[in-house]
């Protein structure tokens, strides 16, 4: 059984999830070597996972049977459990929450040997569609304040299973990092009456030194102060606070830009592992502050090239050995014309 | 030339230090394998490093010659440079500082094959003495607001050179993570008129389930909400805000507890890589808020067992698969009686 515990000094929650110590590990001891398929996420192995909660599948195919393109199942070794009742406990300097939440795995393809960047734009659009639909569904559970979707690609980026998948975690508190962004963006909005992310979009359209690629609806660039070499942010050009509000047509533009970036990253960074993270506004709840005007959803792609070490843990600052403008030039050069 | 850049949304500075991409790497491609000595940090190789700024050495031995036990040199591939003049630049959403600062390497032993935990308590006391003296020295440079000292042990903890060493970075801003702790501790102090760390010391003296080891002056325990499996905090029992104010005799008590913990970690965690981080109060500067009453210096030891992945990057929260009380029990059991 999991438990959320709060650090008594700073506003940081930690999920103590000892069942996860049992989870299987697909990679070799030296990192990125892969085991051959089939694995439990493969087509034909559906009965080896918890029962699916959502899927995109052909007509006349049955749940938990082959015939799907994207499939969502609860995590077998969850950090949090949906059936756990909500409980809050304060005992002196110790504050805890029961581990109630959702932890789902979004299997991106039935094929053991494909990565997200190998999929067609249409297939990636289906993955993005699933992200949106799961978020819309979990919003209805009023225990949850926030839903994070992320992808760990490769062992050194934290993946334990090689078969292409993303993860979703819905939690009863607004995460520290999200709160920092919400407050930073809100402060800017109070001062200037403008969304800071809209201003960042405009800035990059006028200054192309860190721009990588854009299309009608999205823009990808290396941020001004990236923590990691070749860090990339993807922003919708139009102001939208919630990823959940993204329209179908926009999802395909998002997928087009994702595909181009993944192809460029593979070529530029020698197939580096990476994390992909979706940052969106917390679920709207009665009596809670709204960030509709000031916050703007976006994605971060973080290649795993440098190691986080004592300096970063001690300061919350980062040392990045690659000049952001140089990183953007490399990534821009390797964006394919056609995909 | 380095540059500090501030993220426009949140209060996080990043050091863009492209010279560091040139630094040598002592470990094999698969991680922890080591190259045999001698290396540039070994006794007899003093002329291969930048000139020493401090050392503990025998009488009648000369600077930059053999005969030392602990030696401090500027980092050859510094994140920041002491000779860089201070400059601050704001251009719309982009804010930067010149890369002025100190980046030093504290070589803990002349012996290529010893680790910090292999050294005698007296020798570790010398290392702690050097930490304190360098901090006292750098306080005099009024460009600096904060000095962080940390140690990365092992390749997966971010070390690039195997020879036992710590690092010191003095910077012109108070780091984000430090500010969070200062503010959290100050809030507690305003509410209760007590130091939260003093209360944590008292809590652990009354509740031994996460205690590991203590002596007359220090206490080591697994914190209530640790980010990482087997994370350890070391606190002085007496309220002291600045590590710089630690007295000689206390340094030897600190070293005794460090030695015991390092021996236990080695045995408990199969020689896991780790980060050691010294958290202290910012330098006292005229016109700046003081945290003398509310903040309490301490050390964090973070074994590198789990990987930081998408969830952690996206939320600032952590998933820890080991129950803190279980971790403490293992570490406690392996504390040696005699050292």
Automatic annotation (TrEMBL), chains A, B:
Top enzyme class: transferase
Annotated SUPFAM superfamilies: HIT-like
One MF term in the entry's GO annotations: UDP-glucose:hexose-1-phosphate uridylyltransferase activity
EC id: 2.7.7.12
Keywords: Nucleotidyltransferase, Transferase
Record field: transmembrane: none
PROSITE patterns referenced in this protein's UniProt entry, alphabetically: HIT_2
HIT domain location: 196-311
One GO-annotated biological process of the protein: galactose metabolic process
Pfam families membership: DUF4921
InterPro entries: ADP-glucose_phosphorylase, DUF4921, GalP_UDPtransf1, HIT-like, HIT-like_sf
Catalytic-site annotation from UniProt: 165 (tele-ump-histidine intermediate)
The protein, known as: Galactose-1-phosphate uridylyltransferase
Native source species: Atribacter laminatus
């Amino acid at each position: 059984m999991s438990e959320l515990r709060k650090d008594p000094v700073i506003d940081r929650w930690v999920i103590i999830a000892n069942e996860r110590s049992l989870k299987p590990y697909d990679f070799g001891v030296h990192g990125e070597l892969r085991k051959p398929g089939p694995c439990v996420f493969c087509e034909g192995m559906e009965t080896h996972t918890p029962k699916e909660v959502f899927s995109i599948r052909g007509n006349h195919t049955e749940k938990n049977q082959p015939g799907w393109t994207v499939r969502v199942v609860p995590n077998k070794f969850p950090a949090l459990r949906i059936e756990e009742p909500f409980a809050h406990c304060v005992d002196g300097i110790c504050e805890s929450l029961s581990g109630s939440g959702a932890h789902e795995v979004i299997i991106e393809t039935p094929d053991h040997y494909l990565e997200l960047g190998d999929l067609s734009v249409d297939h990636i659009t289906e993955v993005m569609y699933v992200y949106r639909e799961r978020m819309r569904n979990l919003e209805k559970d009023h225990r949850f304040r926030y839903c994070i979707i992320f992808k760990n690609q490769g062992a050194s980026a934290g993946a334990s299973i090689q078969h292409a998948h993303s993860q979703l975690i819905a939690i009863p508190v607004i995460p520290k990092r999200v709160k920092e962004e919400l407050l930073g963006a809100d402060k800017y909005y109070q001062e200037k009456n403008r969304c800071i992310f809209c201003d960042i979009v405009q800035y990059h359209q006028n200054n192309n030194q860190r721009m990588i690629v854009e299309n009608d609806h999205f823009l990808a660039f290396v941020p001004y102060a990236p923590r990691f070499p070749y860090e990339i942010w993807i922003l919708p050009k139009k102001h939208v606070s919630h990823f959940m509000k993204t329209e179908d047509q926009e999802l395909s533009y998002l997928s087009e830009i994702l595909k181009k970036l993944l192809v460029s990253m593979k070529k530029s960074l020698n197939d580096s592992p990476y994390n992909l993270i979706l940052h969106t506004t917390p679920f709207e709840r009665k009596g809670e502050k709204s960030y509709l005007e000031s916050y703007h959803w976006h994605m971060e792609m973080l290649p795993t090239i440098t190691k986080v070490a004592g300096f970063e843990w001690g300061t919350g600052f980062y040392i990045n050995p690659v000049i952001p403008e140089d990183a953007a030039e490399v990534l821009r050069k390797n964006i394919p014309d056609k995909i």
